[in-house]
Specification:
Helix content: 25-40%
Oligomer: single chain
Number of domains: 2
CATH class of the largest domain: Alpha Beta
Largest sheet: 4 strands, mixed
Distance between the termini: 60 Å
Number of helices: 12
Length: about 425
């Protein structure tokens, strides 16, 4: 990867094992202490701002992956390396994230994991293309964001295509009784996230004899959901789909209680920090999930199995992983490390890029195989549900940790 001189900024703070550029500018000597036996891993993510609730948990997983790699050593061709992690806070800002990625590449990063959310992913993709370097997203998998890379991806996601994440949940909810579920309303920000789901939702539900009764869009910065929820309630739906980020979801739940709108089933897009933010009202809510300590279909040489990751997480943080997000962060790093092994190089960007494009393997998290836009078609979503404050896999039946609970407990309050 090419190098040039970048101005050093003084504003630095320490987070975990990595130095975070609090100023949003990557210092030119960030990796100055790296030796010939050390690989440079740049992690660019939002540790503050809108995506901070995700970034802090992703960062935990990344550090666990680095520790696991360094305890065994990363053998590439005939040489064994350690990994030096540098973590940079993009403050959930797309332009800052793109700038940090570009400067980390210029500073000689051997591995790059960067970007939470579709807006930030869109800003990173042209940087990766211009620099001709492979980058793995921290957590971004909207199909329409990746589509422009078709046939020539530089930016990859270890997550499955977003277009299919609700499929196991719809399949499961279509089978329940008492009451039967048919009418779905969705509340969502009017952005790439909402546009993708709204476009696909009628056809996705039709397969299960279900239908869209109403879609309520709101401006992405909104925190006032009383009127939108009342408009959703007028349709007397069976399912409320909250296709939103964590901060919006928490605000919506508070206003659900204010307007006393309790449908028989509620589905949310992501689980992070909902137990803390929503409380007991989150029990009974369904959510797509991508990993669980209870599922060990795959493994890798560094972390091992899903149970091994959960053990490492508990040893480091004295708690069980609350959801799949930290595991996702670890998976990003492990996948990149394995790509270096397949490329038999730590610095040949075309070879590493080719190794990712043709990757066909597995980690503790899932199978990994990228399609022609850079999304992981090897990973599969599951249906999960909050029960007694814990997120449990409830479908498909072959891998579930608990039976689904139906209806949503609050329904009887309506």
């Amino acid at each position: 990867m090419k190098r040039n001189t970048v101005t050093r900024r003084k504003a630095m703070q320490m987070i975990g094992a990595g130095a975070v550029a609090a100023s949003g500018i990557l210092p030119s000597k960030a990796f100055a202490q790296a030796s010939n036996n050390t690989l440079k891993l740049a992690s660019v993510l939002g540790l503050s701002g809108f995506y901070g609730q995700y970034g802090l948990e992703l960062n935990r997983g990344i550090q666990i992956a680095v520790d696991a790699i360094n305890s065994k050593g990363l053998k590439v061709a005939d040489k064994t390396y350690k990994v030096q992690l540098e973590t940079f806070d993009d403050k959930s800002d797309a332009s800052t994230s793109a700038r940090l990625v570009e400067r980390a590449a210029s500073d000689g990063a051997n591995m790059m994991v960067a970007g939470i959310g579709s807006l930030i992913a869109k800003a990173i993709i042209p940087v990766a293309q211009r620099q001709r370097i492979p980058v793995i997203g921290q957590w971004a998998h909207l199909d329409n964001v990746f589509a422009g890379q078709k046939g020539n991806p530089y930016y990859f996601s270890t997550m499955p295509p977003f277009s299919g994440i609700y499929e196991p949940t719809w399949e499961q909810l279509a089978r329940v009784d008492g009451p039967k579920l048919r009418k779905v309303v969705m509340i969502s920000p009017n952005d790439e996230l909402g546009a993708l789901v709204a476009k696909r939702l009628p056809d996705d539900l039709k397969k299960y004899n279900m239908e869209v009764a109403h879609v309520e869009f709101f401006p992405p910065a909104s925190q006032d959901f009383g009127a939108p929820l009342e408009r959703c309630a007028r349709h007397n739906p069976d399912i409320l789909l909250i296709n939103c980020y964590t901060a919006q979801t928490i605000a919506i739940f508070k206003q659900i209680q204010a307007v006393r709108f309790y449908p028989p089933s509620i589905v949310v897009e992501a689980p992070t920090h909902l137990v803390e933010g929503v409380g007991k009202a989150i029990d009974g809510v369904f959510v797509p999930a991508f990993w669980s300590p209870a599922i060990s279909k795959t493994k890798d040489e560094f972390i091992g199995t899903s149970q091994d990751f959960a053990r490492l997480y508990k040893a480091k943080h004295n708690a069980e992983p609350p959801d799949f997000v930290a595991a996702c962060g670890a998976n990003d790093v492990i996948t990149f490390a394995m790509a270096l092994q397949k490329a038999r190089s730590t610095s040949d960007s075309p070879a590493i890029l080719n190794a990712l494009r043709n990757f066909d393997g597995e980690t503790f998290f899932s199978a990994v195989k990228f399609n022609d836009v850079g999304l992981n078609i090897g990973a599969k979503p599951y249906s999960a549900q909050f029960q007694s404050g814990k997120l449990l896999i409830v479908g498909p039946d072959a891998v579930r940790a608990a039976a689904p609970q139906h209806p949503y407990p609050g329904w009887k309050k309506t």
